[in-house]
Write a structure and sequence with these properties.
The chain has about 300 residues and is α/β, with parallel strands linked by helices. It is about 30% helix and about 30% strand. It is built from seven helices and 15 strands. The chain is globular, with a radius of gyration of 20 Å. The two termini are about 20 Å apart.
Length: about 300
């Protein structure tokens, strides 16, 4: 009976950890259980499942402990190979037709760094006979590999999301974000993802591996790493203002999230380097590192 299967599992995967929550619905106030499981080295590398057996064992344990068998699953994948593009398509196309049309344009009108993409489209404004859209492309084999292992473990995958979109969703729906030009700085222990949101739409993203990913680095070494990446953050801020908007707009809000052990130090250094307001999801009910999975839990039911 349907009512016995209420609720959904939300899983965010990085190369290091699997974070999860269980929600009764998509309400911010919905009671949840949450936690994380560390992934042994080389279980997932560069967003790709390397050791399927280990991942399946971890999932089976979590499903058994939490009684998730046959529950709906929403999951986020690492943003390492996502491509976001602004394109124009004929205004008459439906979203399904738009996806087919875009696939015919790959390799001629524009290029992707991988073949066989999974594609999602978001409509923007209309200009005469054309519609502006956002294209999200991700290697389909990566998504299929995750879906298959989730299904084998006994979950029912419903939808996939990007971690950056999940984080922004939480900010937007819980903080009534009024800024139109936002840079999300998702700073994890092993990677830094910078995503620009314009009018609440993700229009640009950059993924950078953090070479020194050990937890036991000194604070001095951490500051060196932080300063190096703040240079990159400033470059993205300038790139948005002078290249993307041609000087018409500039970033007016920074969001800072992630599981980087020295995130508070990063915020202090960032505050000294820029004059922009920084929102860091402090004073939330759950630890900062869970903001991505909370945002995923707010994704509307498919």
């Amino acid at each position: 009976m349907g009512f016995l299967n209420n609720g959904r599992v939300n899983i965010v995967i990085t190369n290091r950890v699997l974070r999860y929550s269980y929600n009764k619905n998509t309400s911010v106030d919905s009671p949840i259980t949450y936690g994380e499981a560390e992934l042994p080295a080389e279980t997932i590398k560069d967003g790709t499942i390397v050791n399927r057996a280990v991942l399946l064992e971890i999932l089976n344990r979590l499903i058994q402990e939490n009684k998730w068998k046959r529950k709906k699953l929403y999951f986020s994948v690492p943003d390492d190979t996502v491509v976001i593009r602004q394109l124009q398509i004929p205004v008459s196309l439906t979203k399904e037709e738009a996806v087919s049309y875009i696939k015919t344009q790959i390799g001629t009108s524009f290029y992707l760094p991988f073949g066989n993409p999974a594609i999602a489209v978001e409509y923007l404004d209309v200009v005469e006979t054309n519609r502006n859209i956002l294209l999200f492309a991700y290697p389909k084999e990566k998504l299929t590999a995750f879906e298959t292992v989730f299904e084998e473990a006994g979950l029912k995958p419903i939808a996939a999301d990007l971690t950056s979109l999940s984080l922004y969703r939480y900010y937007y729906q819980t903080k009534a974000g009024e800024k139109d030009h936002v840079l999300l700085i998702h700073w994890n222990q092993d990677a830094l993802v910078l995503t620009v949101f314009q009018n609440h739409k993700a229009i640009f993203t950059r993924y950078m591996n953090i070479e020194t990913a050990e937890e036991n680095i000194s604070e001095e070494s951490a500051k060196q790493i932080i300063n190096e990446y703040i240079i990159e953050i400033n470059r993205i801020i300038d790139f948005y203002q002078y290249s993307i908007t041609k000087g018409a707009s500039q970033i007016n809000q920074l969001l800072l999230s992630g599981d980087f052990p020295f995130l508070s130090t990063a915020k202090s250094s960032l505050s000294e380097a820029v004059t922009l307001p920084i929102h860091d999801f402090k004073n939330e009910e759950l630890p900062l590192k869970y903001m991505d999975v909370l945002g995923l839990a707010l994704k509307a039911d498919a």
